[in-house]
Inverse folding.
């Protein structure tokens, strides 16, 4: 039986898709705060759009990776020889915390039908 017979929605609002996907990725700027992962989780739970859901999952995986990376880099910086590693650790942290979310927001707003995939992260099976 066709989906239209059940009254199911087969098309999604592209503006709503752009906005919600961008919001999921935009909270990456808040890095290590719990709000940064709470918003994508909330959007994942309430949205029925498959692109928005995938964007939320990607954002959640990114935040968890960011927290693990922050912990590892923090350990290396404070426990080991951080003063030697600072020229390497600071750019990596800035790249992950600011540049990648900015790229994700831009891609979400310019291409609503494609999910931005963060490079170099472990994706969780959500």
């Amino acid at each position: 039986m066709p989906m239209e017979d059940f009254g199911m929605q087969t098309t999604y609002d592209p503006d709503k898709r752009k906005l919600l996907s961008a919001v999921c990725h935009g909270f990456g700027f808040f890095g290590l705060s719990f709000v940064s992962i709470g918003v994508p989780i909330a959007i994942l739970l309430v949205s029925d759009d498959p692109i928005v859901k995938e964007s939320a999952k990607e954002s959640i995986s990114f935040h968890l990776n960011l927290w693990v990376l922050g912990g590892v880099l923090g350990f290396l910086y404070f426990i080991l020889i951080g003063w030697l590693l600072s020229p390497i650790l600071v750019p990596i942290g800035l790249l992950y915390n600011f540049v990648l979310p900015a790229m994700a927001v831009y891609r979400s707003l310019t291409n609503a039908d494609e999910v931005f995939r963060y490079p170099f992260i472990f994706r969780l099976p959500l």
